[in-house]
Amino acid sequence: xxxxxxxxxxxxxxxxxxxxxxxxxxxxxxxxxxxxxxxxxxxxxxxxxxxxxxxxxxxxxxxxxxxxxxxxxxxxxxxxxxxxxxxxxxxxxxxxxxxxxxxxxxxxxxxxxxxxxxxxxxxxxxxxxxxxxxxxxxxxxxxxxxxxxxxxxxxxxxxxxxxxxxxxxxxxxxxxxxxx
Length: 180
Known about the structure:
The structure is a single chain. With about 180 residues, the protein is mainly α. It has 2 domains: about 5-70, Rna Polymerase Sigma Factor, Chain: A, CATH 1.10.1740; about 80-180, Orthogonal Bundle (Arc Repressor Mutant, subunit A), CATH 1.10.10. The chain is about 65% helix and about 5% strand. The longest helix has 22 residues, at about 140-160.
C-alpha cells in the first residue's frame, strides 16, 4: 500500500464511514461500501492530479459507491410473481386481487403502450432507460407510459366499482355484473 493511500485511509476512514452510515440502511452495508471505496482509492489514487483536492475526491468516490449500491438494489419483479400477502390492507390487497385482470388488460393494449408499461412497470426501467432502449425521446416515452396507464384506468372504471376509504385509498372493488 502506498503512503498516499495509507495516509488517506487513516485520515478519512472514520469520516467516510459516518458519511456512508447517514445514507444507507445499516452498518453492514456501510462497511461493504467503505471496503469498495478503499479498493477504488487503492486502484485510482494515481489518477488524482491535485493532491490538495484529496478530500473532495474521496467524497466523490464515496458518493458514487453509495449510488452504485442503491442501483444494485433496484427491484426487478415481474407482475405475475408478486406474492399475495394476506396481512396487507387497502390499496395493496385490492391490487393483488386485480393482478390477473391487469395482466390481461396490459396484454390487450396496442403494442407501443403495452411495451412501455411492461418495461417500466414490470421490469422496473425508468422512463429515461425505456426511451434509450426503444430509441425514442424521453417525452415520447413519458407519453406512452401515461397513455397506457390511462387506457387501463379507463377500462377498470368502466368495468368495476371501487370502494374507497376517507383518504381515497381503494378498500375493495366489484366487477359490474354485465362485465363478468
